[in-house]
Amino acid sequence: MTKQIVEQIIIGVPSTDGAGVKLLRVLHGPAMQRRLDPWLMLDYFSSDVPEDYLAGFPDHPHRGFETITIMLEGRMLHRDSRGNQGLLQAGDVQWMSAARGIVHSEMPQQEAGRLAGFQLWLNLPASHKMQDARWQDIKASSIPRWEDGRSGFLRLIAGHLPHQLGAFTCVSAHQQGPLEQHLSFPMIIHGELGSPQPGDGSLEIPVSKGHHAFIYMINDGLTVDHQKVAGGAMAVISPQVDRLTVGGHGAFLYASAKPIGEPIAQMGPFVMNTQEELMQALEDYQRGRLG
What we know:
By secondary structure, the protein is mainly beta.
């Protein structure tokens, strides 16, 4: 019997965050957070209308999880309460482990043009929620890249892939993504499939058995296991499979990770295990003890 690869398809919901930035919220809510544990949130933002993004994300707190920001187009400046500052440009990635707490801002550094990218929230186990916050900028040039000799490419942000992946060959010095996290072992791939040649053009992505995985389609034209998935939608992958096949033409973001299996209690930018811990996080923020 053939295993079903796509468990369900989730359509992104138009939303706003920060000081009014327009975005598509794809992964959110308790049910989907439990299903895709340890992934807590996926937002996709993309607009060339300055009013959609100029207000940015002024100072706001986080505790209990990690944020992964992937810039596709435009420029965003990060500042935080620990004195860190970094400019994210097209292709760059920022990994911030908020852990016991940090206050930061993410502000666009442009007044025109397109601003586009993703933000992922990755949960931390209880044993690491109250550790010191950490922050890392990852330049586009340090992200391993695979190419298929046409217009297709893969960028490995986290995880490991073989040197040869179907028609895709690694053109970088190594096959390990620069974001290394040994708690839930995430794999994150940003890629694009070009116009397929006859009888060709599909990509097999290995999935660690039991890990929770999804693939978000940036635009129309792609399939998962020969099933069409529209742009702006996310396919939730069955935890019983060890690989998925992506075909067609278009860009995507794939993510997988080992589930934590702990209770999730969330209050806005705080993600802990109990309501009592959430109230403590709120009090710590109000008293200036966060980061």
